[in-house]
Amino acid sequence: MSGAIVRPYGDTTGDGMVQVSFTLPLPHDKRAEGAALQLAEKMGLAPALLVHAKAMGPDFTFFVVYGSVTHLVDVDAVTVVPREFPLLSAKEVNAAIKSPLRRKLLVVGACIGTDAHTVGIDAILNIKGFAGEKGLEYYRELRVVNLGAQVLVPELVERARAERADAVLVSQVVTQRDAHIHNTTQMSAAFREAYPAGTAPLLVAGGPRFDESATAALGVDRVFGKGTTPGEVASFLVHALAPLPAARTP
Ligand code: B12
């Protein structure tokens, strides 16, 4: 659709109805409910209806507010990061690696920092895969070293060097206090420091709350967000590493 201005759909087309939830640092009483409605109004919900309020301990209240948002969405002004590589089948990925490289492509994966959310990285790496696609372990020409949860950056760099990794895949799910950004920038800086210029492995960061356009700021080669499938990652690896070097020397 081009030139479209849209509003959310609730009960009828274009009525603008949205539902938002949030917590205020106030004990649950009438004043807290009024504060929630004031916030909703400031967010552009008019009229706003308080549909749920529940005390979260003595000092906090959780709210759900439903209302018509006054803002419009200009679909033409939406910017997305387009996929810059073709999607390949597992067979095509294997073929693209096998002939130029004549060895398996080595992928090291980990959940770094204190993050213990391994389901996302496992969805990409484990053979059982995700969304009907097999994970990278299924690809004959890939060798996957999955380091699991709570891997410290020095440990990751060390292992990547020992394994002569072609690509390092890190997952960050927790975003409290921008932990995902700090951990990823720390990781990429450590790789830049540990490897001579231009020889570091391909660095890929993934997780549900990453901004896919933030590669430069994070110092990585690619960022993948929510809903990523293993096939996309395998296709990217081939795209980014071709023509593949015969051997990596850290
Ligand atoms: C399961 C879960 C847990 C499990 C994790 C078990 C495990 N082994 O992973 C347990 C119970 C341990 C847990 C603990 C905690 N959790 Co938790 N958890 C979740 C939950 C419910 C689901 C996450 C999940 O598995 N998603 C499914 C996977 C498949 O999706 P995904 O991670 O997005 O991965 C996909 C993409 O993002 C991408 N991807 C992800 N990583 C990578 C990496 C690469 C390289 C690539 C290419 C792609 C990629 O590909 C994947 C497939 O598409 C979420 C809420 C939610 N619904 O998301 C909260 C959630 C992530 N947890 C949260 C929190 C706060 C915690 C705790 C801090 C709670 C506490 N106070 O103790 C602890 C932290 C523990 C720690 N040290 O990390 C918060 C995070 C909030 C924030 N802003 O950071 C969430 C959002 C819940 C919430 N709404 O509050 N959690």
Describe the structure.
The protein is of the alpha/beta class. The protein has two domains: 5-76, D-lysine 5,6-aminomutase beta subunit KamE, N-terminal domain (Defensin A-like), CATH 3.30.30; 90-241, 3-Layer(aba) Sandwich (Rossmann fold). The protein is built from seven helices and ten strands. It has helices at residues 30-42, 90-101, 119-125, 153-163, 179-194, 215-218, 230-241; strands at 5-6, 17-24, 45-55, 61-69, 73-74, 105-111, 142-146, 167-171, 202-206, 222-224. The strands form three sheets. The protein has a five-stranded parallel beta sheet with strand order 7-6-8-9-10, sandwiched between helices. It has a three-stranded antiparallel beta sheet with strand order 2-4-3, with helices on one face. It has a two-stranded antiparallel ribbon with strand order 1-5. α5 (179-194) links the parallel β8 (167-171) and β9. It is elongated. It starts with a strand and ends in a 9-residue tail after the last helix. 30% of the residues are buried. The model has no long low-confidence stretch (mean pLDDT 94). Bound molecules: cobalamin. Cobalamin binds next to α3, β8 and β9.
